[in-house]
Design brief:
- The chain has helices at residues 16-23, 74-86; strands spanning 51-55, 62-66.
- A two-stranded antiparallel ribbon has the order 1-2.
- By secondary structure, the chain is α+β, with helices and mostly antiparallel strands.
- The radius of gyration is 15 Å and the shape is globular.
């Protein structure tokens, strides 16, 4: 039913991910504005920024910020398992 994808953005354009996926007939789960058939029971959409990295504008220091998932259910658990399997280091 679902595909898990990891996206690296090069720009911060508003709704970039949502619009591009919708244009390719792959709306994000729960995203009614961009073509999902129904909303999420817990509200929101299934889009998660797990890591954001940037260079500080003044110090030029490289910074990384990580975020936990908003809640755990079977779909998030399946994504986490899939992510871990695809990012194992040998």
């Amino acid at each position: 039913k679902y595909s898990f994808i990891e996206i690296q953005l090069l720009t911060g354009r508003t709704h970039q991910i949502r619009c591009q996926l919708s244009n390719n007939k792959m709306p994000i789960k729960g995203d009614l504005k961009y073509g999902a058939k129904r909303s999420e029971k817990m509200g929101g959409i299934r889009l998660h920024a797990g890591k954001i990295s940037l260079f500080h504008p003044d110090t030029k220091e490289y910074l990384e910020f990580f975020a936990e998932f908003p809640y755990e259910d079977n779909l998030w658990k399946a994504f986490i398992n899939s992510y871990q399997q695809n990012h194992q280091t040998n």
